[in-house]
Every structure is written in C-alpha cells, then in structure tokens.
Amino acid sequence: MTATDTEAAGPKHCARLNQVSKLFGSFAALRQVSVELEPGRCYVLIGENGAGKSTLLRILAGLLRPTHGKVTVFGGSEPHDVRDRIGYMSHAAMLYDELTATENLRFFGSLYRGRACLSPEEALRQVGLDPNLSRTLGQYSQGMRQRTSLARVLLPVPELLLLDEPFSNMDVASVRQMVELLAGFRQHNRTIILTTHQREAAEPIADWILALHAGRIKSFEPGNPTL
Q1: How far is 71 from 91, CA to CA, in rounded Å?
Q2: C-alpha atoms less than 13 angstroms from C-alpha of 173 in its C-beta half-sphere
C-alpha cells in the first residue's frame, strides 16, 4: 500500500489517483489527491460534509472526470472504460418504492443486456433478504432498503464496490448486519471503498482509514479489521 504519487503503479493496484483535483467553478472539491489502493482491501473515507468524499467516489466510478490529474483502475484503465467492473451505490437509494425488491432488481437487471449477471433472487440472498417477500420497498425498513440497494449494485458482479454512506439512517442492528455482509465480500477479494460519518461502525472491516478535509487527504491510517 502506498499513498504517494511518485511510486510507479504496480500490476496489483486496484485504483490509483495521481495529483487529482476536481473543481466546480471556483470551488475545489478535491485538491491534488494522490493515493494507491490495493485489491481485496476495505478503505473507509471519513470527513465532514463537503470534505470531498462523495466526489472522490464518483470520480473512481467514472461518473465525474478530474479537472486535473489522472485516475486509473485495475492496473491502468480509466474508470469510464471499465464501468462494468465497478459497482457504485449512491447516497440516494435509486429504487422504486411501489415495487418489491425482486421487481426492482428484475428491472435493473434488464439494463445489463448481453452481460452475465446474478439473478435478482441470487443478489437478494447475498445480502440476506428473502426474494419471495411480497412487501413493496415503501414498506421496508431503512436497513432493508440499504441492503436492497447493495443487491442492485451486486447484480453485475463488480470487482470494485464504491459505497456512499451505506450506513445512513440505519439502526445499530442494521448497521451490524451491513458490516458483516461487507466483511464477507472483502474476504472474496473484492475491493471496497466506502464513505461514512460513523467511523466506529466501519472500523471492524477497515484495512485503511482515510480522513479528508477541504478536499485533501488529512491522514491515512491503518485499520484493524476484526471481521
């Protein structure tokens, strides 16, 4: 693991940012961020609102391009060229409340034409939900909604999971369930990069904790995963 832009990217890096800045008009959401991320690790991004956490995730997902600097994933590709290998879970649920979980995933699965994907039932079972549940999403608890959102991300079997506030508005028991799920994915050599305001919730799976402040990496600390 290295957090410098001077070391050459090795073949094992999952993602690399080299002097990346992102400007929105005169506002700098990211300022010369350089970091290299290994596969099969869990990276937790913390920081106050506006620190640049979500912007960094969206750049890694290929949804935003950096204003300056370069981003590569999977040993050298640009994110927008390998989006099929990246799963991005936004802060918004992006689900239809009037549909069941299975109906939601069946719809989203239909958007991946020509690609091998999990079935809706398989994806839901992976996150610990019953695919036969007849309730609509509007009747789900927040924890169940977040797990359904994660199931949607898992449909195309991504290698890199980018999760924006996956513990948002969840109770303690639901957070624990989500953390245990993510621990299982990490053990299958998936790379996880997640943002959270709840550092203590993510610490059991964090290999590294990155603190952002005003668009810069303020600290880069090793975690101590216990799951």
Answers
A1: 22
A2: 3
- Assigned domain for 211 exists: yes
Higher-confidence residue of 53 and 13: namely 53
Going by C-beta distance under 8 Å and a sequence separation of 6 or more, which residues neighbour residue 162? 57, 60, 61, 86, 87, 88, 89, 193, 194
How many residues appear in the chain?
227
Neighbour-count burial of 152, counting CB atoms closer than 10 A to its CB (0-12 exposed, 13-18 middle, 19+ buried): buried
Give the pLDDT band (50/70/90) at residue 6: very low
Answer whether residue 188 is part of any domain.
yes
Residues 6+ positions from 187 with CB-CB distance below 8 Å: none
Number of domains the chain is built from: 1
Buried b / exposed e along 155-178 (16+ C-beta atoms within 10 A): bbebbbbbbbbbbbebeeebbbbb
Instruction: Report whether 209 contacts 35 (CB < 8 A).
Output: no
Nearest in space to 140 (alpha carbons), one of 174, 116, 180: 174
d(CA 70, CA 34): 9
Name the residue range of residue 116's domain: 15-222
